[in-house]
Every structure is written in structure tokens, then in C-alpha cells.
Amino acid sequence: MSKPTVDYSVYLVTDSGLNHPSRTLLQSVEDSILGGVTLVQLREKDLDTPAFIDLARKVHEITKKHNVPLLINDNIEVALAIDTEGAHVGQDDISCTEARRLLGPNKILGISTGTPEEAQKALADGADYIGIGTCFMTQTKSPKRTLGPIGVRAILEALPKDHPLKTVVIGGIKRDNTRRVVEHSAGRNGRILDGVAVVTGIVSASDAKAASQDLLREFRTGYENASNYLQGQVSKEKKKSIDEVLQSFPQLLTTLREKAPLTHHISNYVVMNDTANATLALGGSPIMAPSASEAQDLSKVVSSVVLNIGTLTESFVECMLEAGKHANAQSKPVILDPVGAGATSLREATAARILNHVHVDIIKGNAGEISTISKIVGCDSESIAMRGVDSLGSGFTNPAAVVQALAKREKCVVAMTGKIDYVSDGVRTVAIENGHEYQGRITGSGCMIASSIGSFAAISTDDHFAAAVAGILALNLAGEHAAARDDVRGPGTFRAAFIDEIANLKPEQVVKEARIKAIQLN
Ligand SMILES: Nc1ncnc2c1ncn2[C@@H]1O[C@H](COP(=O)(O)OP(=O)(O)OP(=O)(O)O)[C@@H](O)[C@H]1O
Ligand SMILES: Cc1ncsc1CCO
User: Fold this and answer.
1) Residue 414 near ligand 2, beta carbon < 6 Å
2) What does the alpha-carbon distance between residue 505 and residue 475 come to, in Å, rounded to a whole number?
3) 343 pocket-lining for ligand 2 (C-beta < 6 Å)
């Protein structure tokens, strides 16, 4: 019998201990196949060989009926006894070469890998696929380190594009993160995950069939988006032109003032009060809530979330991860302000952790912060030094290209502040020349921009690029108006006048005074 062709799209890995109490494991397997599971692995760590063989025989009856391959975890003896389509081994189990020798050339053989080196070894040792993990923390595994989509990407990029070795990701994969993991892990060498391996997301779901259908749909969408991205086919359709974005500003600000969207801020001690006041002056409604315990409740009532890493503590980080996760689940926009990323390794690691666990819709930072984020996600860019929370030097040689590349890579909007601000969604890129140097001389003006973007993102839900442009324009025009006032004699008086002028903004006047230009990059 020749080796079967395998569709790895949604790969069920069983665990009787986590199986939903309303049905048997056999029912979970059958329901999941009916929902779209394309491959099954029987993983039973606690059964002795005779009991394992007995269960494997019953599961195999089901998988054969539906023409879905069955692999046995770890126990080659069971795989051979039942004549399943193959087996899966871990790094601490029997070696891959020994497993291949016992199974012969026509069985499917997979191995768990957590590093680029293990992946390359698996390829050399004759594996058909690798299970890349652990991606996220799970109930079944609590490793010291999780890979996140960025770590998965590093492994995909260590593999040759055209080798037939297939790849699946494992560890905490659920309906809500599947698409993002597949999109964000896509390697620049053209490698995209061939599937997602799921345990709890299927066996513990109350409806295993529906859960599998959702996972298959999310995997396919993620795969299609990833291949479009790799082929540079980012959709240019349905996007407003820069002029249309500018003309939409009055309506956005008017709606913001009417609706006063509630925005959840996990901000820093230095700017908390200023960002709350700037949000109120603009017409929004802030809640500064740094406790992880209330993040889920808040996610139901707020319209966007701003994560600011300015004064880091463990509890801030815990809250940001929790708020981000729930905002993603509720489809509320998330804005990341990676304050001081690049200044210390803690800030860099925290920014990486957030990007790995939360889908961020808009990243806002100064040149030093954007250079660090570009490095974290594997986008080549010049290095811009930081001193504390401030960016040093004159910035990038080609700032628009850096911002556009990062936006494309992360499939989000990137806003980079400085004397000139740049915004891109990977397709549209603009430079905004408004603003006053006094903004750079008070602390938190960048943080206030993130808050302003957060309020506009709550209104401009289908176009976060327009939200970022509006958020910057509003505050930069207010900055210009404040600096021009006779009563403003320095940064201190400017700070108070700035809040007043945010509240005094006239939507049409902003459009007239905007100095924004589109930047065409190839
Ligand atoms: N020299 C300048 N001329 C005009 N506008 C400026 C100037 N410097 C800063 N700004 C404006 O100030 C705002 C904040 O940008 P900046 O890059 O200073 O933020 P930041 O370094 O992140 O600030 P913080 O960390 O204090 O919050 C932006 O809207 C930017 O346009
Ligand atoms: C000065 C400062 N230090 C940590 S956060 C912050 C405010 C600017 O973001």
C-alpha cells in the first residue's frame, strides 16, 4: 500500500481526559470528522498497550469509514498492530529514524519540534510533517517558553520552501486565533502552515462538529490571506483614497462626539491623567483600568482598547494580555503603544509577547519604537537608537518604506510619530506634516495620540487607517492652535492650552488646515 495523501488542514489530537462529558471520545472523533477534521491522532498517555490497541481499533473503524488517516501518538507497536496510516513521535520518544525504520516508507510519520534546528533534523530524518509548538500556553502543556506566531515563523523560515515536509502548528490553537496564527506565521521564504493541530478546541467543545467547521473555515481564510500577502496581492479594492479619508474626518469627529465611545486604557503612571483628559476633550470617554480581573467584563462594554507599556509591571503586562485577548474575541480594535521598546530588553520582550498573543490593529510609536517592533517581527529596517522613552537621531532614511513594510508584515495599521508623522496600512501610506514642536517638549503627547487613535478606531471600525490619520490630525491641529495662542509661553502653559484646543476643534477647519500627502512606494 502506498503512502496516503494527507490534508493537514484541521488535525484533531485526542485527549480522553479533556473530552466533553456529554459524549464519548469516539463520538467526538466522528463529529469532528463530520465538521471537517482532515486528520486524527490518537493520543492516550495513560493507557497500557492492550487498552490502547482496543481503543485505537474502534477509532480506526470510524476514521476508515470517513477516509481520514489515523496516526498513533508515541506507540509504534500500536500503530503497527492496528495498521493505522502512521504515527507521531515527540522529541523525548523513540527517535524519528528508528520510528521510520519500524514503520517502513509508506506510513505517515510526524515529529514535534520547537526550534529551527529540530525542524531541520526532522526533515533530514525522514519525517513527513512536523508539529510546531507549543504556540500558546494550553491546559495540556505548560512549557517554559511558548513560540507564538513569530516563533512559528522562525521555524517555517528555516525550512526550504519546496521540500515536501509539511507543517502544522500545535498548542492553544482555537477558532479565535487560528486565522491570525496562520497569517502571522507565514514565512518570507513562502512557507505557510499546512494545518492547525487542535486538542481542547475540539474535544472540549460542546459541539465538536461546529467547532471543527469553524476551525476549517478560519484555517482556509488564514491560508488564503497569507498566500495573498506573500504574493503581494494585498487588496487595493474598497479602500478610500487619501482625499476621501481626509474628507471623512468631519463625519468621524462628529460621530465620535455624539457617541462618546468608551475606550479601555491600560496606560502608564506618567501620562494616565493627560491621556484621560485628552480623550475627554476630544469627545470620547476613557476608563483607565489596569487590573486583569476586570478585563473580560470591560471587553463587553468598551469600544476599543489602548495598550501602553510605558511603566511596566508584571500586573500591567498580565492585564494587557488579558484585555487584548478579550478585545480580539469581541472584535474590538486594539491599539499598541510600545513606549520605550528598544530602551530595555524587558520592554522589547513585552512588546513581542503582546504581538504574539494579541492581534493588534494599530501600532503607534516613535521611530525608535517602530524600529524595535520591525526587528521583533523580522522586518528589515535601520536601527534607531532610543534613550529612555525618546527616539534619538534624525530617524529613518526612508521612514515611509519602514512603516509600510511593517504594516504589510503585521497586517495592521502602523502610525509613526515625529516631526512628520507617517501612517500606513500596507497599501496606502501618508505623511502628515502638522503638529508643533511643543508637543515634543511635553511628556505623553505620543501617548495622547494613541488615545485619540483609540477613540477614532471605535468609530471608524472598517477603516483603521482612516482612524489613525484622524487621530493624528486632530491632536496635531490642536497642538498648532494651542501653540499660536498669546497665553501660551512655554511647555507648561501649552499643556493646558492643548487640552482646550482639542475640545475646541472644528471638524471642517481640520480638513482645511491638514498638511497630508500620499506617498507612492512600489
Ligand atoms: N518637532 C515637531 N514638530 C511638529 N510636531 C511634533 C514635533 N515633535 C513631535 N511632534 C508631534 O508630537 C506628537 C508626539 O510625537 P513624538 O514622536 O514626540 O511622541 P513620543 O516620543 O512617543 O512621545 P511620548 O513618549 O512623550 O508620549 C506627534 O503628533 C508629532 O507629530
Ligand atoms: C517619561 C515616561 N517614562 C515612562 S512612560 C513616560 C511617558 C512617555 O510615554
Assistant:
1) no
2) 9
3) no
pLDDT value of residue 380: 78
Looking at residue 239, its pLDDT comes to 84
Q: State which residues form the domain around 509.
A: 242-518
Strands 421-424 and 413-417: antiparallel
Q: Report which of 271, 301, 270 is spatially closest to residue 285, judged by C-alpha positions.
A: 301
Pick the closest to residue 205 from 59, 10, 21, 66 (CA basis).
Answer: 21
Atom index in ligand 2 nearest the CA of residue 310 equals: 5
Query: Residue 187 sits in a domain of what CATH number?
Result: 3.20.20.70
Which of 209, 230, 251 is the C-terminal boundary of a domain? 230
What pLDDT band is residue 452 in, cutting at 50, 70 and 90? very high
With respect to residue 4, please indicate whether it lies within any of the assigned structural domains. Answer: no
One-letter amino acid at 307 equals L
Residue 1 lies in a domain: no
Ligand 1 centroid – CA 222 distance (Å): 36
Residue 236 burial by Cβ neighbours in a 10 Å radius (0-12, 13-18, 19+)? exposed
- The answer to whether residue 447 is catalytic is yes
- Confidence band for 409, pLDDT divided at 50, 70 and 90: confident
**Does 371 lie in the same domain as 257?**
yes
Tell me the backbone φ, ψ of residue 206, rounded to 5 degrees. -70, -30
Mutate to test the pocket of ligand 1, among 335, 373, 391, 417 (most ligand atoms within 8 A of CB): 417
Q: Does residue 426's CB lie within 6 angstroms of at least one atom of ligand 2? A: no
Domain boundary residue, one of 172, 196, 230:
230
Q: What percent of the chain has pLDDT over 90?
A: 83
Please state the φ and ψ torsions of residue 506, each to the nearest 5 degrees.
-105, 120
Domain assignment present for residue 3? The answer is no
Q: Which atom of ligand 2 is nearest to the CA of 271?
A: 7
